[in-house]
Every structure is written in C-alpha cells, then in structure tokens.
Amino acid sequence: MPVALAGLIVACGGSSSGGSSNGGSAPGVTATTINIGMEADLTVNTTVGLGGQLGVRMAISEINAHGGINGRKLVLTTEDSMGSADGGVSAMRKLLDEDNPFVLIECSTSDATIPVLPEVESTGIPFMVTAAADPRILAPFNKWVYLGTGVPVPSLVSEYVNLVKYLNATTVGFLVTNGAFPTSEYALLKPAMQAAGINVVGETTASTTATDFTSQVQAIKQMSPTPNLIFTIGGGGTFIKQLRQAGITVPLIADASQTTPQLISLAGGFANGVYSFWEYSTQLLSATTPPMSDFLSAFGSEFNPAPAGMPNYFVLEGYEDMYALAYAIEKDGKNPTRDGVDSQLDQLNKFVAGVTAFPYAFPVGVPLSFTASVHQGNTTVLPLQVENGQYVVLQGAPSTTVLTPNVVTATPTPSPAA
Questions:
Q1: What 3-state DSSP class applies to 158?
Q2: How much is the pTM?
Q3: Tens of pLDDT along 50-78?
Q4: Which residues contact residue 418 at a Cβ distance below 8 angstroms, ignoring those fewer than 6 apart?
C-alpha cells in the first residue's frame, strides 16, 4: 500500500488503482494520483539503481510539495531489475501486469533494459531511460523510448577518440568488463580508433564484479607494442589503483560511466591524472556554488543520512529526467493520455527544470530536447581530469559540446564550479 514520506507517495510493488472510473483518463491515472512505474537495479548495481531512484524520488517529492501535476499527486512504484536480463523482464512484467503505471522511468543497466524494450513498444507506454546507454536503447527506433540525460555510446565514441588524439597517444590497450554496455562500447570504439590511425594493441577482459585485476594487469604489461595509453571500460578505482601499483604510469582514460566519487575513493591518490568525461549536469558534483550547492544541500535534507556514495551522477539523471517526464504529463493537460505524453515529449526543446518550468526545481540539468524522430535528449559531453582528488574540466581539450551560459565552462584553473 502506498505510504506518504516527505511529500512523496511511494509504492514498492503491488497493485495501484487507475482508469477513468476514479476520474482518470488513462491507465495509472485516478482523480487524485498519477502512477509512475520505475525499473531500477536495487540489488546488484545499487550505484546505478539506488542513485537513480533517489533522484526520481527527490523530483517527485518537490512536485508533490507544490501541488502535484494539474492537481494530482505523483505515486512512484519501483520494481527491482536485479541488474540482469531476466530480472529486467520480470520487473517490467510486474510493473505492467500488476502495478498499473501511467508512464515508466528506468535507472538500471543496459543488460536489464534492452530485453524490456519490445514489451514497452507493444504496450504503448512512454519509457524514459536515464542510465542505460547501450546503442540498442535507441536503435532500432522505438517511438515510446526516450534516452534523457545519459548520452548513448555512439555519441561518446567520437569524444573518446578526440581525447586520445589530443593526448598524442598512438598505441592503446584496453580493459573491458563484461556486460551489454561495455561490450557494445568497445565494439564501436575499437574500429573508430583504428580509423583515426590509433593502434589498438590489445584488450583484456574482466567480470563487472571483479576486485582482483592481477591477471589483467599482467596482460597489459605483455601487450606489444607497449601501449602509451590505457583505456578502461569498467574496473573503476580498484583497477586503476592496482595498475598504478604495478608500475604502469602511462595516461589512463576511464569511460564516462565511471565518473563517480567511488572511483576516486577506491583509487585514492592513484586517481590523480586520470581522464574521464561528464555529461550529467550544468556543474560538477563537487561544485560549491549554486545551483549545485543548493541541490546538494536539499538532497542531504531529503535523505538524512544519505546512503554511502550518494549523491552520484545517477541521482542527477533521475532528478532531471523525472522532471522532463513530469513536464510532458503537465503539458498534456487535465486528462493526460499515453499518446498525449508521447507527443509532448517529442516537442521538448532545451528543457531545464527550474528554468523552462517548475520554478522551485534546482536548475542543475543539461538542456534536453527530443523530436518525433530523435529520442536522444542530451549531447553534452565534457572531458575531465582528476586533480587533487576532484574532477575538473580539462583545459584545452577538444569537445563537440557547444558551451552555453547554462553549461559548466572551462577556466584556466579549477573554479568553484569544478
């Protein structure tokens, strides 16, 4: 049964009433509530799932505290995808068969998200994807599926290649963890680097749950010719620490999925100098100035004490993308329908919560835009480097991102926004 908590109505599975008999105009809509269904990884990769869920919860809490959407409060019903294909399918089936959501939002791995897309399409329900960035999320095109703040792999690949060239690296070795996203990313990145004249001298693989990378470090040492840059797709701070402890000192790039405080905390001082990327908000999480500082303060008040490692960028994705979904519901009027919300999402143009609408929201989000044929909402990608235990915007590096006053800007030295 739903329970009210800090302005948020939360349901952990189970049935939720809906339909026009209670004054609603669509499944999951009653005279007083709108049911938001969420698939999140709350068991295996909680960095992803819990982070995203907290961001969604914070957005819904703020919306409900200000009267809801057109007089209706939002109810969040979450099912655990357990970070796997089977878990994702099971969670989606429970959401659609039992929980009666009006729309869906996701914060789970690509492994758990890709298998549910056909069911989303056959049901005809708007599905906002916040975390999964495998290219199969958007291809083939599915009119009901939207990728919000997260940038898909094909858009990231060109930025990765640009940075490798900027660092004058000619021979690159890879660590690639298993799973749908790392595998897809490497499958696109390797030929892109080769096409740019960069020699990929080898790759070594590891489990996504690995903590001992001794064999992978040895494999990198044995690559020939010796790589003058290591690119990691997974492994995080633990791999970076073990690589540096083994005496490998060449430049190191961690893909955008690893840009978390945990990477720095696990690697310790060995994280300094590591390159990565940021796509998630107008300021970095280490910002000490508004609006990020205000967001962080409010997050600490909403979730006190905050879970370890939170907030992370998945929190930002959930927060921003939930507001975009809420805006489409609001724009569809007093009696929203799934088709209507889908149409409103297709008209989203440079949406930023706290700027475009919802003036009480913290305007930390990157501008999101969709069209009827383009469901990638974000194109912001900025190269970073770890300095003194914090991520800062890398100075002088090439980026196709068009910087605007509402996007974090590069400065000659680390600024408060970095």
A1: helix
A2: 0.86
A3: 999 999 999 999 999 999 999 999 999 99
A4: 284, 286, 287, 390, 391, 392, 393, 408, 411
